[in-house]
Amino acid sequence: MPDPLDISSTRPSRPGLSPGAWAAVSAIVVALIGAGVTLTTTWWSQHRATAATTPSSAPQASPTPATAQERASGVQGLVGRWSGLAQGPGQPAQRIEVEILASCGPGVACGWITVPDIPCRGRLSLLGPTVEGLEFQVDGFEAGSDPKQCQPGAGEVLRATDDGGVAYTATYSGAKGVLRSAS
Q: From residue 176, how far is each of 19, 86, 159 by CA, in Å?
Protein backbone atom coordinates (compact mmCIF):
# COMPACT_ATOMS: atom_id res chain seq x y z
CA MET A 1 0.00 0.00 0.00
CA PRO A 2 1.42 3.39 -0.97
CA ASP A 3 2.35 5.83 1.76
CA PRO A 4 -0.25 8.66 1.72
CA LEU A 5 2.42 11.22 2.67
CA ASP A 6 4.81 10.22 -0.13
CA ILE A 7 3.85 12.51 -3.03
CA SER A 8 6.55 11.11 -5.32
CA SER A 9 4.57 7.96 -5.79
CA THR A 10 1.53 9.91 -6.94
CA ARG A 11 3.45 12.10 -9.41
CA PRO A 12 3.02 10.89 -12.97
CA SER A 13 6.29 9.97 -14.68
CA ARG A 14 7.56 12.48 -17.29
CA PRO A 15 9.39 11.51 -20.44
CA GLY A 16 12.68 13.37 -21.14
CA LEU A 17 15.92 14.13 -19.39
CA SER A 18 16.36 14.45 -15.68
CA PRO A 19 17.53 17.77 -14.20
CA GLY A 20 21.02 16.27 -13.73
CA ALA A 21 21.15 15.26 -17.40
CA TRP A 22 20.09 18.78 -18.47
CA ALA A 23 22.87 20.24 -16.31
CA ALA A 24 25.40 17.93 -17.99
CA VAL A 25 24.14 18.86 -21.48
CA SER A 26 24.32 22.57 -20.60
CA ALA A 27 27.90 22.20 -19.34
CA ILE A 28 28.94 20.46 -22.55
CA VAL A 29 27.30 23.14 -24.73
CA VAL A 30 29.02 25.94 -22.78
CA ALA A 31 32.39 24.16 -23.13
CA LEU A 32 31.90 23.72 -26.90
CA ILE A 33 30.98 27.39 -27.37
CA GLY A 34 34.04 28.47 -25.37
CA ALA A 35 36.31 26.19 -27.41
CA GLY A 36 34.82 27.53 -30.66
CA VAL A 37 35.35 31.16 -29.63
CA THR A 38 38.93 30.43 -28.51
CA LEU A 39 39.82 28.60 -31.73
CA THR A 40 38.22 31.25 -33.94
CA THR A 41 39.95 34.10 -32.09
CA THR A 42 43.33 32.36 -32.24
CA TRP A 43 42.96 31.55 -35.94
CA TRP A 44 41.87 35.11 -36.77
CA SER A 45 44.80 36.63 -34.84
CA GLN A 46 47.30 34.39 -36.60
CA HIS A 47 45.65 34.92 -40.01
CA ARG A 48 45.66 38.71 -39.60
CA ALA A 49 49.32 38.76 -38.48
CA THR A 50 50.38 36.50 -41.36
CA ALA A 51 48.41 38.43 -43.98
CA ALA A 52 49.80 41.73 -42.77
CA THR A 53 53.45 40.75 -43.19
CA THR A 54 54.38 40.29 -46.81
CA PRO A 55 58.04 39.16 -47.00
CA SER A 56 59.66 41.67 -49.32
CA SER A 57 62.06 44.56 -49.17
CA ALA A 58 59.95 46.74 -51.46
CA PRO A 59 56.25 47.42 -51.78
CA GLN A 60 54.52 44.83 -53.97
CA ALA A 61 51.72 45.51 -56.41
CA SER A 62 48.36 44.03 -55.49
CA PRO A 63 47.47 41.10 -57.76
CA THR A 64 44.02 42.61 -58.30
CA PRO A 65 42.87 46.22 -58.53
CA ALA A 66 41.32 47.82 -55.47
CA THR A 67 37.72 46.71 -54.91
CA ALA A 68 34.79 49.08 -54.59
CA GLN A 69 34.72 48.37 -50.85
CA GLU A 70 38.40 49.35 -50.50
CA ARG A 71 37.79 52.57 -52.46
CA ALA A 72 34.79 53.35 -50.30
CA SER A 73 36.85 52.79 -47.16
CA GLY A 74 39.25 55.56 -48.16
CA VAL A 75 42.30 53.83 -49.68
CA GLN A 76 42.06 55.80 -52.92
CA GLY A 77 41.89 59.07 -50.98
CA LEU A 78 45.27 58.22 -49.44
CA VAL A 79 47.16 57.42 -52.65
CA GLY A 80 50.13 59.72 -53.13
CA ARG A 81 52.96 61.31 -51.16
CA TRP A 82 52.14 63.13 -47.93
CA SER A 83 54.21 65.12 -45.47
CA GLY A 84 53.57 67.01 -42.24
CA LEU A 85 54.19 67.23 -38.52
CA ALA A 86 52.82 64.90 -35.84
CA GLN A 87 53.09 65.39 -32.13
CA GLY A 88 52.31 63.16 -29.17
CA PRO A 89 51.48 64.27 -25.62
CA GLY A 90 54.58 65.81 -24.04
CA GLN A 91 56.72 65.07 -27.11
CA PRO A 92 58.29 67.36 -29.69
CA ALA A 93 56.71 67.52 -33.14
CA GLN A 94 58.31 65.23 -35.74
CA ARG A 95 58.14 65.29 -39.52
CA ILE A 96 56.17 62.35 -40.95
CA GLU A 97 56.38 61.39 -44.62
CA VAL A 98 54.02 58.79 -46.09
CA GLU A 99 53.72 57.31 -49.56
CA ILE A 100 50.67 55.17 -50.42
CA LEU A 101 50.64 53.25 -53.71
CA ALA A 102 47.55 52.90 -55.92
CA SER A 103 47.90 49.10 -55.62
CA CYS A 104 47.26 49.25 -51.86
CA GLY A 105 44.94 46.61 -50.44
CA PRO A 106 44.46 44.54 -47.28
CA GLY A 107 47.56 42.55 -46.33
CA VAL A 108 49.57 44.04 -49.20
CA ALA A 109 52.65 46.23 -48.93
CA CYS A 110 51.11 49.63 -49.63
CA GLY A 111 54.00 52.05 -49.45
CA TRP A 112 56.36 53.63 -46.94
CA ILE A 113 56.42 55.75 -43.82
CA THR A 114 59.46 57.85 -42.96
CA VAL A 115 60.33 59.78 -39.81
CA PRO A 116 63.52 61.59 -40.93
CA ASP A 117 64.44 62.97 -37.48
CA ILE A 118 64.83 59.49 -35.93
CA PRO A 119 65.80 58.21 -38.75
CA CYS A 120 63.22 55.57 -39.55
CA ARG A 121 61.80 54.31 -42.88
CA GLY A 122 59.57 51.24 -43.04
CA ARG A 123 57.10 49.45 -45.28
CA LEU A 124 53.36 50.00 -44.67
CA SER A 125 50.80 47.18 -45.06
CA LEU A 126 47.06 47.79 -44.81
CA LEU A 127 45.36 45.97 -41.94
CA GLY A 128 41.89 47.44 -42.33
CA PRO A 129 39.42 50.08 -41.20
CA THR A 130 39.13 51.37 -37.64
CA VAL A 131 36.97 54.07 -36.09
CA GLU A 132 39.73 56.63 -36.73
CA GLY A 133 40.60 55.63 -40.32
CA LEU A 134 42.61 52.91 -42.06
CA GLU A 135 45.14 51.11 -39.90
CA PHE A 136 48.52 50.12 -41.28
CA GLN A 137 51.30 47.95 -39.95
CA VAL A 138 54.90 49.05 -40.38
CA ASP A 139 57.82 46.64 -40.82
CA GLY A 140 60.64 45.94 -43.29
CA PHE A 141 62.76 48.88 -42.15
CA GLU A 142 65.45 50.11 -44.52
CA ALA A 143 69.12 50.04 -43.60
CA GLY A 144 70.04 53.13 -41.62
CA SER A 145 66.80 53.10 -39.61
CA ASP A 146 67.36 53.34 -35.84
CA PRO A 147 66.70 49.78 -34.56
CA LYS A 148 65.90 51.02 -31.04
CA GLN A 149 63.18 53.43 -32.13
CA CYS A 150 61.90 51.77 -35.32
CA GLN A 151 59.73 48.93 -34.05
CA PRO A 152 57.50 46.79 -36.29
CA GLY A 153 53.79 46.66 -35.54
CA ALA A 154 50.34 48.05 -36.10
CA GLY A 155 49.04 51.45 -35.10
CA GLU A 156 49.70 53.81 -38.01
CA VAL A 157 46.23 55.19 -38.85
CA LEU A 158 45.52 57.38 -41.87
CA ARG A 159 42.28 59.07 -42.94
CA ALA A 160 41.60 61.38 -45.88
CA THR A 161 40.25 64.72 -44.67
CA ASP A 162 37.57 66.86 -46.32
CA ASP A 163 40.12 69.58 -47.13
CA GLY A 164 42.36 67.26 -49.19
CA GLY A 165 44.84 66.34 -46.47
CA VAL A 166 45.47 63.17 -44.50
CA ALA A 167 44.90 62.87 -40.75
CA TYR A 168 47.70 60.83 -39.14
CA THR A 169 47.45 59.02 -35.79
CA ALA A 170 49.99 56.75 -34.11
CA THR A 171 47.76 54.78 -31.73
CA TYR A 172 50.75 53.42 -29.78
CA SER A 173 52.07 56.89 -28.82
CA GLY A 174 49.08 59.22 -29.19
CA ALA A 175 50.88 61.29 -31.83
CA LYS A 176 48.55 63.12 -34.21
CA GLY A 177 49.00 65.42 -37.15
CA VAL A 178 47.76 66.47 -40.56
CA LEU A 179 49.76 65.60 -43.65
CA ARG A 180 49.59 67.54 -46.91
CA SER A 181 50.39 66.49 -50.45
CA ALA A 182 54.15 66.36 -51.06
CA SER A 183 54.00 65.62 -54.80
A: 58, 5, 11
Tell me the CA distances in angstroms from 182 to 23, 68, 123, one per residue in order. 66, 26, 18
pLDDT one-digit tens code per residue, 132-181: 999 999 999 999 999 999 999 999 999 999 999 999 999 999 999 999 99
Higher pLDDT: 101 or 19? It is: 101
- Mean pLDDT over 75-102 rounds to 95
Number of C-beta neighbours around residue 54 at 10 A: 17
User: Which residues share a beta bridge with 71?
Assistant: none
Phi, psi of 8, deg, nearest 5: -65, -30
Q: What is the 3-state secondary structure (H, E, C) of the chain?
A: CCCCCCHHHCCCCCCCCCHHHHHHHHHHHHHHHHHHHHHHHHHHHHHHHHHHCCCCCCCCCCCCCCCHHHHHCCCHHHCEEEEEEEECCCCCCEEEEEEECCCCCECCEEEEEEECCCCEEEEEEEEEECCCCEEEEEECCCCCCCCCCCCCEEEEEEEECCCCCEEEEECCCCEEEEEEECC
Query: Does this model's pTM top 0.70?
Result: no
Query: Using an 8 Å Cβ cutoff, are 139 and 123 in contact?
Result: yes
